[in-house]
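Thanks for the sequence, V.! I ran Protein meaA right away. Repeating your input here for the record:
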Amino acid sequence: MIEKDRPSKDRPWVMRTYAGHSTAAASNALYRTNLAKGQTGLSVAFDLPTQTGYDPDSPLARGEVGKVGVPVPHLGEMRRLFEDIPLVEMNTSMTINATAMWLLALYQVVAEEQNPDATPEEVAAQLAGTTQNDIIKEYLSRGTYAFPPEHSMRLIADMIAYTVHRIPKWNPINICSYHLQEAGATPTQELAYALCTAIAVLDQVKASGQVSEEDFEKVVGRISFFVNAGVRFVEEMCKMRAFVELWDEITRERYGVQDPKMRRFRYGVQVNSLGLTEAQPENNVQRIVLEMLGVTLSKGARARAVQLPAWNEALGLPRPWDQQWSLRLQQVLAFESDLLEYDDIFDGSPVIERKVNELVQGARAEIDRVQAMGGAIAAVDSGYMKQELVSAHAARRGRIEAGEEKIVGVNIYETTEPSPLTADLDAAIQTADPEAEQAALDSVAAWKAQRDETEVAEALAKLAEAAKSDTNLMGPTLVAARAGATTGEWAGTLREVFGEFRAPTGVSGAVGVTQAVGEAGAELAAVRATVKATGDELGGRLRLLVGKPGLDGHSNGAEQVAVRARDAGFEVIYQGIRLTPEQIVSAAVAEDVHCVGLSILSGSHMELVPAVLDGLREAGLGDVPVIVGGIIPDSDGRRLVELGVAAVYTPKDFGLTEIMGGIVEVIRKANGLD
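Predicted structure:
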């Protein structure tokens, strides 16, 4: 029997891996290798100093250079990053927010240099890609903001107006619900807060007067989203269909967009990293596959671009082979299966229709609640959205600890055979180049030595002058990039005009697990009793300082520790993210704390923790125990203990109440009570 002709296939989504590390030269080599393996787009990870607007020689950049991405402190490093990669032929996604305008300017200038026979306008018109540029979620979850909300929104509106007129194939903003889910958002909250962010951005662009009514549809058409997909793939797929429905409704009814193509919900996805486990990490492979299915199975709600984490991201920095494995997962689905040959296989399903409707109704109600407060920015300033996320995350952690939410290898089926993948833990991940920071420092020094300082000073002065007016800042930013200004100088100039900002932590008003019942409630009650008894023995309530040293803005873990410590009876001192070791030591002295807990997920623990330990000793607090939590390889953990850390906690230590019990024991031991 001869097989009938198969139906024609849809084009696959853009396939990316999120990559960048150590140096621009090393990252460039990785990009070219990944493109040769079949990757169809680039997704650039920048290091934390670049993301937050600091040069490598800033005190806040200590230990953070090249750790979670590539450092790009000036135009020369952007040239190295894309050497031998023709930018006018590439589709590049840049995970950059506070400094998005600056990095886009550097990218455009490099493209101009690669095409000297074309005008800057002709080059810009050929560029395609995305800048993440969603600052609201930075205040809520990721922490790489640089300026206050109103000024950050001005930068976003300026960028959107510029790209619509000059770089028409560029997505100037990627509204991110991804990080909201990482911070604990339920599907309803993820839908609502992401769409409230989009509304705030579109309202800001409209109010700026930089885009005509005729061009506003183009603005809506260039808005894209970056979404998280968890392991509950039916619910996640329904969430995507709900996004499609709600976005069509908002753009049609609120903004009067008539062209259905301009109302299309365009999104890329990185599947859930929060759900990856350190325990039995091989299970992460099937988690990643299930999460990928949630954003690819439904044709009407299929992602336009997909990037997958690696199986070992809960252990440390993935190696090139690990990233290749994740790329191959996508390629097998797209090219070996028949998924792309059919229309939407879920249309007409009453189960799917019911779940989508439930999510749509819940999201509409939460959107209305936020809009009644004055919109997303007002809900950030008041702390409402942050508090809701911290509470939702606390509830989820409580369900996991109580065994209501099951995670294989973590709180169920914990027995395991030895894994060949992790037989040598130190070899199972990539180690950040220890010379990267010095290389970046040398690069900045050499760059400044060869540039025209007068030209730079004049460009930055004009940038400051423009920032005090309503001039679109993309023009002065391009001038500063061409003159040779650095990332820190661009951001520092704007900080002087716009001021600094510290986002609400959401901890004080968050709902914890004080009403836990059963075994979980009994465990918490026992720890609370020990906390009180120990405080009585030491003459007062136990005080725990939770600190986030360096530029790591992923505060979810620190917030959950702070909330659970409060529920366990500690007096908690938590001042939020982005503190120097010196500031943490000063707080420990001022608050006369019994224990210092440090949370670091950026890989900078071997630089920052010893600095805190040394500072405490110099301040006469060498007897105050220090505990550390984060993604810390075993060898680093052992070294930290040798240096004087009392306890090290990693993602496998998911029981927060158990951790609280450990903290009490550490305090008792340090004070000779046992």
